[in-house]
TrEMBL record:
It comes from Luedemannella helvata. SUPFAM superfamilies: GroES-like (SSF50129), NAD(P)-binding Rossmann-fold domains (SSF51735). Keywords: NADP, Oxidoreductase. This is NADP-dependent oxidoreductase. Gene3D superfamilies: Medium-chain alcohol dehydrogenases, catalytic domain (3.90.180.10), NAD(P)-binding Rossmann-like Domain (3.40.50.720). Residues 11-300 form the Enoyl reductase (ER) domain.
Length: 302
């Protein structure tokens, strides 16, 4: 037997339950991974609550979890690139809060030496989201980038990857996270009323591009600061972005981009602080992410 988190209805964190399930087996081209780390995303919270029920209705009982790191423990027919015992990380589709996941072998990224497994599991979604958004926005060395929600998982990586690309970065966060945001390489600015003026003060040269991971007010502020509205990107609120001439910057999943960020993390070029919860404390982990505040990434340990 194996164990997985299931929900039987939309609702608060208390609808999350751990149940026994049959051990999954890999088919052709697939591997089975013994999960060690499962990331918790704001997306999982929205899914659990039913916020996405109109667009993506769940069939109950439903499973959750789009990111994992662990050890390959079974290999399906035709898989030659991975073997039992290999440590991997990658995306999965709403199944990763579980002791075992089965994924296409081509979606699994080999964990680089020097990267601990907890950080590896934490990186998966945020790394792909941040790197994809920066790519979509064409952030480069000449830019001054404004990152909204810079202390969160996506913001943490977006700040550092933009700095790696040579950009100057301003990051919004609550005052408690300002030293942290500064340590990532950005100038911290408090969000809330007066944001536009504070950013102008922090970046007298002007802001050329903005990445929103916070929603409406962040986008409206960006519209006052960025001249080329097509360089206002959001991963939260496409409708508001489009209303000001900006756009959504969701990129398709990319094992190649994930591998590139994992390599930077293995070298210590990028960091991602992790808040860990035992698998059995999945309800507490959801509460932590649902608070909407905090730094870095929340993961479950199995
Ligand atoms: N994770 C992903 O891969 C992914 C993919 C697509 C879309 N998204 C969306 O992007 C958003 C952020 O995701 P995440 O994983 O980075 O979240 P997270 O790790 O939970 O971080 C949320 C951050 O938002 C900050 N924040 C709260 N209110 C804010 C405000 N009014 N203005 C600016 N910052 C504010 C908090 O900073 P303080 O603690 O300093 O208040 C906190 O650090 C979510 O809506 C999520 O659904 C995420």
């Amino acid at each position: 037997m194996s164990r997985a988190v299931k929900i039987n209805e939309y609702g608060g964190p208390e609808v999350l339950t751990i149940v026994d399930v049959a051990e999954p087996a890999p088919g052709p081209g697939e591997v089975r991974v013994r999960v060690k780390v499962a990331g918790v995303q704001p997306f999982d919270i929205k899914t659990r609550r039913g916020d996405l029920a109109e667009r993506m209705p769940l069939t109950f009982p439903a499973t959750l979890g789009n990111e994992y790191a662990g050890v390959v423990d079974q290999v399906g027919p035709g898989v030659t690139d991975l073997a039992v015992g290999d440590e991997v990380l990658g995306s999965a589709s709403a199944v990763a809060y579980a002791e075992h996941v089965v994924v296409p072998a081509t979606d699994a990224v080999r964990k680089p030496d020097g990267l601990d497994i907890v950080t590896a599991g934490a990186l998966v979604a945020a790394a792909q989201t941040a790197s994809g958004a920066l790519l979509e926005l064409g952030v480069n060395a000449g830019d001054t980038l404004l990152v909204h929600a810079a202390a969160g998982s996506v913001g943490t990586l977006a700040v550092q990857l933009a700095r790696e690309a040579g950009a100057t970065v301003i990051g919004t966060a609550s005052p408690a996270n300002h030293e942290y945001v500064r340590s990532l390489g950005a100038t911290p600015v408090a969000y809330g009323p007066g944001l536009v003026e504070r950013v102008r003060e922090a970046a007298p040269q002007g802001v050329t591009v903005a990445l929103d991971a916070a929603g409406r007010d962040a986008i409206l502020a960006s519209a006052e600061l960025v001249a080329d509205k097509s360089r206002i990107g959001t991963i939260v609120d496409p409708a508001t972005a489009e209303s000001v001439g900006g756009r959504a910057v969701f990129s398709p999943r990319s094992p190649a981009r994930l591998a590139a960020v994992a390599a930077l993390a293995a070298k210590g070029t990028v960091i991602l602080p992790v808040r860990t919860y035992p698998f059995e404390d999945v309800i507490e982990a959801h509460r932590a992410v649902e608070s909407g505040h905090g730094r870095g990434k929340v993961v479950l340990l199995l």
